[in-house]
Design a protein that fits this description.
Shape: globular
Distance between the termini: 37 Å
Number of helices: 8
Strand content: 15-25%
Strand order of the largest sheet: 1-8-7-2-3-5-4-6
Length: 248
C-alpha cells in the first residue's frame, strides 16, 4: 500500500486533488465545539476544550478551533463539497463530531451533495461524567454516500463502536482508537484510497494501510504532520512476519 501526506491547509490542498480519485473520506475535523457562549467557542484553545484540567499528558494544541457554528457549517460545507468532487461514485464520507455539532455536520454533509445515510455512535467507557445528569459518553460519526452504496460488496459493518481513547503512546489530544478506525476504513474497497483532510497524528492512515487501502492525508500543523509521517512510514516498514525461535 502507499500513502501521500500533504502539509498545508485542507481546503487549499483539496482543490489540487483530482476528480474521482478517492474511494472514501474519513475525517475528524476541528469541529469547534465545547462552549456554551460565543466567547467560549472562539476564545479557548483546543487543549482548553478537550483536555481535563490536571491531565497527565501535555500534548500540543492544533489549529482551527476558533469558528462559531455558522462559520463552521459554511467552512465544513465547502470542504465536503471539494471532497465530494474527489470521490468516485458509491464513495462514503464519515465525519466525526460531538453532540453539539452533529446537527450542523449532517447539514453540511447534505449541502455538499452527499446523501446522509446515518449517524454512528462511538461510545467511550472512559469519558467525562456530568454532575447531576447523564454522562457524556459518546461522539458521533455522521456518514453519507455519493449516489448509492455499492450493494455488490459483501460487506456488513457495525452500527456503533465501543472503545476508549488511547492512553498508552497517545500523541494527539483527540486521537482516535486504532481499532475503531480499522473498522471504519473497511467502507473503502480493498486497494482503494482513503482521504483524510485532517490527518492529525495519522491514525486514519495507519488503519488504512493495515487494512490494505491506500491513503491520502492533509495536515496543517507541522508538529502533527511530522508525527503522522513517522507513524505512516513505520507502518510501511514493519516486517510482516514473525521470526521463529531457536531450533530444538
Amino acid at each position: 500500500m502507499t500513502y501521500t501526506l500533504h502539509r498545508g491547509d485542507a481546503l487549499t490542498v483539496l482543490k489540487t486533488i483530482p476528480d474521482q480519485s478517492v474511494h472514501a473520506v474519513i475525517t475528524d475535523p476541528p469541529y469547534n465545539s465545547g462552549g456554551r457562549t460565543s466567547s467560549d467557542r472562539t476564545g479557548r484553545t483546543a487543549r482548553a476544550r478537550y483536555v481535563t484540567a490536571g491531565s497527565a499528558h501535555d500534548l500540543a494544541d492544533f489549529p482551527g478551533e476558533n469558528r462559531d457554528q455558522r462559520s463552521y457549517r459554511s467552512w465544513l460545507t465547502e470542504l465536503l463539497t471539494e471532497s465530494y468532487r474527489t470521490a468516485v461514485e458509491h464513495a462514503v464520507a464519515a465525519v466525526f463530531s460531538d453532540w453539539r455539532q452533529e446537527p450542523t455536520t449532517s447539514d453540511a454533509l447534505q449541502m455538499a451533495g452527499w446523501t446522509w445515510s446515518g449517524t454512528i455512535p462511538w461510545i467511550k467507557p472512559a469519558s467525562r461524567p456530568r454532575k447531576g445528569g447523564f454522562k457524556q459518553a459518546a461522539e458521533f460519526i455522521t456518514w453519507g454516500v455519493k449516489g448509492t452504496l455499492d450493494h455488490s460488496r459483501n460487506l456488513y459493518l457495525p452500527g456503533h463502536f465501543i472503545a476508549s481513547q488511547p492512553r498508552k503512546d497517545r500523541v494527539h489530544i483527540t486521537q482516535k482508537p486504532i481499532e475503531v478506525m480499522r473498522q471504519l476504513v473497511r467502507i473503502c474497497p480493498e486497494g482503494g484510497t482513503v482521504l483524510d483532510p485532517f490527518t492529525g497524528s495519522g491514525t486514519t492512515g495507519v488503519a488504512a494501510l493495515r487494512e490494505g487501502r491506500h491513503f491520502v492525508g492533509i495536515e496543517l500543523s507541522d508538529h502533527y504532520a511530522a508525527i503522522a509521517e513517522r507513524r505512516l512510514q513505520a507502518e510501511l516498514t514493519q516486517d510482516d512476519f514473525i521470526l521463529a525461535g531457536p531450533e530444538e
